[in-house]
Specification:
Three copies of one chain form a homotrimer.
Chain A: H1 8-26, H2 30-34, E1 37-44, E2 52-53, H3 55-70, E3 76-88, E4 94-106, E5 109-127, E6 130-140, H4 141-144
Parallel strand pairs in A: 1-6
Antiparallel strand pairs in A: 1-2, 3-4, 4-5, 5-6
Chain lengths: 146, 146, 146
């Protein structure tokens, strides 16, 4: 596979982009989160669930998923990304792979649940000097071993 | 809110600053930790506990807190920061927000306790080319949901 | 101790290097992992176990250790590094210290084991513009408190 050398500048920008993106998601602002995708963006967050497409579709999917999964359960989720690898491609897109842990706190319970362990595969693009996610695919380790 | 664009250089400097600062804290060197604050620095580490003020006050608070909390319990604590967002302000200060997990090991017990999940809100300043913490406020997720 | 100022560029390069190195290890590619060491590299990963030496020796040690430790147990391990401190030395080597957690998933079990908490001490060198690990020593917190 031909790749383009990564600059440290790009590496840091991807770190910051993903951190801000996930802080927005964890604050429950699904519209702002979907705005970090390209207009035709694609987001496959859970195996067996079809990928959501377009900003509008991603925001709708997140509203539906959170309602279905947590209902009125007052959880606070924090997505931790780490061990980021960034690989610019000859076509101008940027491939980024990171480890993910989801940290879930509940009122009055000091010890959070930390699960599952995942790997996220992002395809990023730059539009008007701004990084955007064109596609994001999440693999869950406990479902993909073997 | 008006903000100033973040350079990737600043982002990396904040990462390194916080990493070194927390390695010092986790080594129990409370005087070196308090020296990473401005002389009039402020540190609110636990909800319901008044903020410590000034380098001297921060060092004293940490000695008192650790004695009270752990006594002769031989724990090794590691503060993990992640998902950093850095926002320079027009007044020259730097706002930094990060997720935090506290990892606590005990002799002979392989699995550490990982709790609580927090968010840290820092106001940083630059003095003589060196970053310093002017104020640090820590929110604990399990106490602030709802 | 005399040290050389760290550039943010070097800090980011070490982050990326360690992330790529550990993704390779976690994918079970022990030959590619050992190729991230210098030819005379040294790797002490577990207290009480002698350090492995040379690329060949490191690859052999990893094959032996994983067979012995996990056998046919289908685990997926993810090494998380964090809180990196980088200190270039006057002799041209680079000292890097980071916190480590090992995240281990098993098929069908959503919650991974997260243990132990470690600190890694690396000595890195640059050869032909490429970072390599000359030595890596891992301390396990639960075995080194007290």
């Amino acid at each position: 596979m031909t790749t383009v050398p990564t600059t440290t500048d790009l590496y840091t920008r991807v770190q910051h982009f993903q951190a801000a993106q996930m802080q927005v998601l964890d604050n429950g602002d699904f519209d702002a989160y979907s705005a970090t995708f390209t207009e035709d963006g694609e987001f496959a967050h859970t195996p067996g669930r079809p990928a959501a497409r377009t900003r509008k579709g991603i925001a709708e999917e997140l509203h539906a998923y959170h309602h279905e999964r947590f209902g009125s359960d007052p959880v606070r989720r924090r997505h931790w990304f780490n061990m980021l690898c960034v690989t610019p491609q000859p076509d101008g897109t940027i491939h980024a792979t990171a480890y993910v842990l989801v940290v879930t706190s509940r009122p009055g319970v000091r010890e959070p649940e930390i699960a599952p362990s995942c790997v996220v595969h992002d395809v990023l693009v730059e539009e008007d000097g701004q990084l955007l996610t064109r596609s994001r695919r999440v693999e869950h380790d406990y479902l993909s071993i073997g």
